[in-house]
Design brief:
Elements lengths: L1 E5 L8 H14 L4 E5 L5 H7 L7 E3 L6 H10 L4 E5 L6 H8 L3 E6 L3 H17 L3 E5 L7 H11 L14 H6 L5 H4 L4 H26 L2
Parallel strand pairs: 1-4, 1-5, 2-3, 2-4, 5-6
Helix pairs in contact: 1-9, 4-5
């Protein structure tokens, strides 16, 4: 089972929106997918409770024993577990990153968000977890977006598709949907699908490296 942990120490980076969008798109692609909400704010849980479709499944288990909970899901046939995390440094976040197949780091193209990346990276690198940046909530064709792309590329892998600031995301969320369900042919849906394709490529590469290193 692949465990994808979405982490950002900066609030408002679009962490929950990105995670649920990717999880729904993964489910739509035919993969058994689950969601885990570890953020005390519970935004992911509130969104899921508004859904008519009960998939991807929202699961709960003791994060203090993350491996045991993840193992049970894998045994039940879950292929992808997407984990939403709190925007703060908590001991359980280090535990989750230690068991992650990949960490996704959403970053808005703003000086404040770029300055805050270092704290998140320190946690990820301490856990020895592969990671990918995803530029989120960007305004199309702005100089700030290009500057952010260049800055992030110096620190690690960056998803080649930018997720732009579009009203489709909050509009879909009102009824507990993701953009790929709400309006599957829009630019927002296309961006999510392209980011997911990149994420899955990275997961397969990292899994291949792990097997080769055994």
């Amino acid at each position: 089972m692949y465990v994808v942990v979405v982490a950002s120490q900066k609030g408002g980076a679009g962490k929950t929106s990105l995670m649920r969008s990717l999880a729904v798109a993964t489910h739509q692609a035919g993969h058994a997918t689950a969601l885990l909400d570890t953020d005390p704010q519970g935004s992911l849980t509130s969104w899921w409770n508004r859904r008519e479709d009960q998939q991807p499944a929202l699961v709960r288990f003791d994060v203090a024993d993350f491996k045991a909970g993840a193992d049970r899901l894998a045994e039940a046939g879950i292929q992808y577990l997407f984990v939403d995390t709190p925007p703060s440094v908590r001991p359980e976040l280090r535990t989750m990153l230690g068991h992650a197949s990949l960490a996704l780091v959403p970053v808005r193209p703003s000086p404040d968000d770029l300055d805050a990346v270092g704290d998140t990276l320190a946690l990820i690198e301490d856990a020895g977890c592969p990671f990918v940046f995803v530029l989120t909530q960007a305004k199309p064709r702005t100089r700030l977006q290009m500057q952010a792309v260049m800055a992030l590329a110096k620190h690690g892998k960056l998803a080649p598709t930018v997720v732009h600031d579009r009203t489709d995301f909050p509009t879909a969320a009102i009824t507990g949907k993701a953009v790929t369900e709400f309006e599957p042919e829009t630019a927002a849906a296309r961006e999510v699908k392209e980011v997911l394709e990149y994420v899955m490529t990275q997961l397969r590469k990292d899994a291949g490296k792990a097997k080769a290193g055994r």
